[in-house]
């Protein structure tokens, strides 16, 4: 996983230098950055990065700031996991980056994310239950 | 003349002059009466004196009359001045009222203009961010149908699916492929990664839907200054080679197929 990161950073740098395959390079960099920014939605990955000291690295922090361009609508429409943007915003704060070293913090975020993820399905189930109950009541009253 | 043009400023002097004239008259009258009284008893010591006094008296009387006229005129002027002052006061009040109303109107207009400007700003902002509803619906469908933002209905606590890219997904993505070149025959890197790659079944080929590479063909990331303070160029070369080989070999990412 660590190599993912260093590859990304090196890769993007090398593509900035190369003049020959600029367009292909940029497209590839786009995909790489797309993948990476979405990986930030994974709290376990964030914990991993924090524990290996990436968040203390100034260039990395600068890179996180640079990634904020994914908030623009013309870029955001490519995100499958838009919740990564919220994590990206939080990552701009040093306090959050420091907290992520704790595994409990990552676990808490993970739990909350999953609970929130289930919000709509729970709501739908409740509605369905309510509807089923109502139909039952109607049936009994008709009888 | 001087008195006539003096007007209000010399009112006190007019009064003084009137009083002075009255005193003079009084004195002269007294003297005259004394002389007449004396001349009754004795012969006149100075025969011209009474005529002198009479003349003076007449003169003083004349002055007195003039002064009285002057006083009357001055009184009239003073009265007119008072009337005019009242009119001026009234006009002053009117002007102040108008001023207040103008101020109020200005305030109201300023508020209205400010609010209108704010509204225009928000309209502009909304127009800038305008997105077709179709696009929004498509996007909403994409992110919900793939269970990225909404849990699948059959989800139970043992289910490996998550609202974020899992380890497996990350490794099978483009980033992961840069480390796990086993399918493409490039020189291996860390044994750990190769091991991970070995565990991947071929089914999980890099083309994962969450990369949306088919749509990203025309998208380019914004240019950034190269200054992330990265590793020295010597290190980059090795990866550059790898990645270039990757891009020509990868059949998975459709970025080359135009």
Automatic annotation (TrEMBL), chain A:
This is Mediator of RNA polymerase II transcription subunit 31. GO terms for molecular function: transcription coregulator activity. InterPro entries: Med31_sf, Mediator_Med31. Keywords: Activator, Nucleus, Transcription, Transcription regulation. Belongs to the Mediator complex subunit 31 family. The lineage of its organism: Eukaryota, Metazoa, Chordata, Craniata, Vertebrata. It comes from the Eukaryota. One of its GO terms (biological process) is regulation of DNA-templated transcription. PANTHER family: MEDIATOR OF RNA POLYMERASE II TRANSCRIPTION SUBUNIT 31. GO terms for cellular component: mediator complex. Component of the Mediator complex, a coactivator involved in the regulated transcription of nearly all RNA polymerase II-dependent genes. Mediator functions as a bridge to convey information from gene-specific regulatory proteins to the basal RNA polymerase II transcription machinery. Mediator is recruited to promoters by direct interactions with regulatory proteins and serves as a scaffold for the assembly of a functional preinitiation complex with RNA polymerase II and the general transcription factors. It comes from Mycteria americana (Wood stork). It is found in: Nucleus. The keyword Transmembrane helix does not apply. The keyword Nucleus applies.
UniProtKB/TrEMBL annotation, chain B:
The keyword Nucleus applies. Belongs to the Mediator complex subunit 4 family. It is found in: Nucleus. Component of the Mediator complex, a coactivator involved in the regulated transcription of nearly all RNA polymerase II-dependent genes. Mediator functions as a bridge to convey information from gene-specific regulatory proteins to the basal RNA polymerase II transcription machinery. Mediator is recruited to promoters by direct interactions with regulatory proteins and serves as a scaffold for the assembly of a functional preinitiation complex with RNA polymerase II and the general transcription factors. It comes from the Eukaryota. GO terms for molecular function: transcription coregulator activity. Residues 247-258 have a biased composition (Low complexity). Component of the Mediator complex. This is Mediator of RNA polymerase II transcription subunit 4. Residues 15-42, 81-115 form a coiled coil. InterPro entries: Mediator_Med4. Its main location: nucleus. It comes from Mycteria americana. GO terms for cellular component: core mediator complex; mediator complex. GO terms for biological process: regulation of transcription by RNA polymerase II. Residues 214-258 are annotated as: Disordered. Keywords: Activator, Coiled coil, Nucleus, Transcription, Transcription regulation.
